[in-house]
User: Which sequence fits this backbone?
């Protein structure tokens, strides 16, 4: 009986080792797939994109929605952002154009592009919020775990993987966003002919985007949070619970992404109220290599 014991032990060890290797292989395959999709996407010279935010649960009865669309052509990126404000029966329109290290903006299609002089955190933040290039950079910097998702239709050319982001890095990123919005010049005056300052949305914690944490509560019907004093940004974010995960679908033949969804759950205390939110940012990618050229303002003036 004893002479068979080493064989049994060896078999058990091999089983454990092989099982561990298989798990490592699966994890490695998921990371490798992400890197291949990321690299292939970043190498693209042109493509179009569009998307929207969805507020799935919130304390607010009327949540502002964001719709965005744009395209990349070489070094230039054009984007149009529409901020829906249903309680005021209006939509704020903002167009952005980035070329190299220059940023341009306009609030109406009939307007001419205006160069954004100096540092403008509000406009740069708006561009980065919905730009898929920035999304992939965020994933790369904050990813905690990458896993392959079940193939819903093995007969087609599409698969998906999920990326869980690191909560501590998310909080640090959110603090930076909020602090930039309180800096001098962070507000863009007069959008669409209105004198009300334009403040970009926060990609995380959508109710915070209303500006009420600054001491200027949003004016809309339904439950709202009334801020009576200036909020300590670090304190607010430190006690926040936040988790986010990207789901990225891609074409197995081209290794290019077709769409990605960032799902965000957050909970935080503000003025003795516990705010819980679940938002999604959906982005669709298409027309690789076939978009209309982007004419930069410099080229137009020649």
Assistant:
């Amino acid at each position: 009986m004893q002479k068979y014991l080493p064989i049994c032990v060896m078999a058990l060890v091999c089983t454990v080792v092989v099982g561990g290797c298989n798990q490592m292989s699966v994890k490695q395959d998921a990371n490798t797939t992400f890197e291949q999709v990321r690299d292939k996407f970043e190498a693209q010279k042109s493509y179009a994109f569009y998307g929207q935010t969805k507020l799935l649960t919130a304390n607010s009865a009327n949540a502002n929605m964001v719709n965005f669309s744009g395209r990349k052509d070489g070094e230039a990126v054009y984007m149009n952002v529409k901020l829906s404000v249903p309680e005021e029966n209006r939509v704020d329109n903002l167009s952005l154009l980035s070329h190299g290290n220059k940023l341009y903006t306009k609030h109406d299609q009939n307007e001419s592009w205006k160069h954004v002089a100096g540092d403008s955190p509000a406009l740069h933040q708006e561009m980065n919020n919905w730009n898929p290039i920035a999304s992939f950079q965020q994933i790369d910097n904050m990813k905690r775990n990458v896993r392959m998702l079940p193939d819903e239709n093995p007969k087609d050319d599409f698969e998906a993987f999920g990326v869980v982001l690191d909560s501590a890095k998310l909080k640090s990123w959110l603090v930076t966003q909020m602090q930039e919005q309180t800096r001098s010049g962070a507000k863009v005056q007069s959008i669409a002919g209105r004198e009300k300052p334009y403040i970009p949305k926060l990609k995380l914690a959508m109710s915070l985007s209303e500006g009420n944490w600054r001491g200027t509560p949003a004016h809309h019907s339904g439950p709202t949070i009334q801020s009576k004093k200036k909020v300590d940004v670090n304190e607010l974010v430190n006690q926040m619970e936040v988790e986010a995960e990207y789901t990225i679908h891609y074409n197995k033949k081209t290794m290019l992404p077709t769409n990605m969804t960032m799902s965000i759950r957050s909970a935080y205390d503000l003025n003795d109220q516990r705010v819980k939110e679940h938002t999604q940012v959906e982005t669709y990618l298409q027309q690789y290599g076939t978009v209309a050229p982007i004419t930069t303002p410099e080229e137009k003036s020649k």
Notes: The radius of gyration is 23 Å. Residues 189-195, 218-227 have pLDDT under 50 and may be disordered. The CA atoms of residues 240 and 268 lie 4 Å apart.
